[in-house]
Specification:
There is one protein chain. With 299 residues, this protein is α/β, with parallel strands linked by helices. It has 9 helices and 12 strands. It folds into 2 domains: 202 residues, no CATH class; 77 residues, no CATH class. This is RNA-binding Zn-ribbon protein involved in translation (DUF1610 family). Pfam families: NERD.
Length: 299
């Protein structure tokens, strides 16, 4: 199951409850596009994996070899390498970096450009760093598995002019064909390699920081997860999102409020009274406290 990063979740919550500056709205848009692209890739690769011994690790992050034991920073603050997809198939290790760009690009003389002529940061630099750092870690494991590092331009409506014929670049139009050739079952047992990778995997969500927005600055109420609009109380048991035409049980709404508070800031002590204030009085302190006692809600 692929999950949104904590930062992505924070921005979604704040978009409904706070006046985000333009650059953070842009960040949210990029995170949403990236997540959609990753889910699209999952849907394409899943039929090749289902029923096979192909290994697919999603959102894999690790600290580079040269950071461990040599940095004055804590592990929480040390830089990390993030891989959208790690796949072991046909006894090879593949990394697939997904790019869901809505704009066209031009490739010329080893550089990337927007259509207006402005230079665009090469996505291959990120792939090269991933190859270098992951290669060092695999070497440390004593693994000699052959590795292929690929960037996938997943948006079918994007055009890349003068696209170089490089094995490390796949566009949406030939993705299925490329996967058909690469996604074959493994002949050897790679459980030890997977175990070592899992040992080094870090939980990026755990390390992502709290928002700097104060509780008093947030709009209060219960908001729709789908459209971000404020829900209206239909009766004692249900909320309703009129634009979406969806009814939400009050218990689900309370769970969501508690989740939002924890995502936004871990230092906030989540109490029944705080949930009531966060809901703008729509969910009472008594309701929260009684359902905590019954085990239906967790603070």
């Amino acid at each position: 199951m692929r999950e949104k990063t904590r930062r992505h979740q924070q921005l979604e919550i704040l978009h409904a409850r706070y006046m985000l500056p333009a650059y953070e709205k842009d960040e949210l848009h990029k995170l949403e596009a990236g997540f959609i692209g990753e889910l699209e890739f999952d849907g394409i690769i899943e039929p090749f994996i289902k029923g096979s011994n192909i290994i697919h690790i999603k959102d894999y992050s690790f600290h580079p070899e040269d950071v461990l034991g040599r940095s004055t920073k804590s592990r929480e603050d040390a830089s990390h390498v993030q891989l959208d997809n790690v796949v072991v198939a046909k006894d090879f290790l593949y990394t697939f970096e997904i790019k869901n760009y809505s704009f066209d690009l031009i490739y010329k003389d080893g550089k990337w450009y927007f259509e207006n002529g402005s230079e665009f940061a090469s996505p291959l630099l990120q792939v090269a760093r991933q190859r270098d750092m992951l290669g060092k870690m695999l070497y440390g494991f004593g693994s000699d598995i052959r590795m292929f590092n690929v960037v996938v331009f997943i948006n079918a409506n994007q055009t890349i002019f003068n696209l170089p014929a490089a094995g490390e670049i796949i566009v949406r139009s030939n993705l299925h064909k490329k996967l058909s050739k690469a996604m074959a079952g493994n002949h050897y047992d790679h459980s030890r390699l997977v175990s070592r990778l899992e040992e080094r995997k870090i939980d990026v969500v755990k390390y992502q920081r709290d928002t700097t927005v104060e509780f008093r600055e947030l709009a209060k109420g219960v908001f729709c997860k789908g459209c971000g609009r404020k829900l209206m109380r239909r009766n004692r048991d249900w909320f309703r999102c009129a634009p979406c035409g969806v009814d939400i049980p009050i218990l689900d709404a309370a769970r969501r409020l508690i989740h939002e508070l924890k995502v936004l800031n871990r230092s906030w002590k989540v109490t029944p009274s705080l949930v009531q204030a966060f809901s703008d009085g729509e969910i009472s302190e008594f309701y929260v406290r009684s359902n905590v006692k019954r085990g239906r809600l967790g603070l």
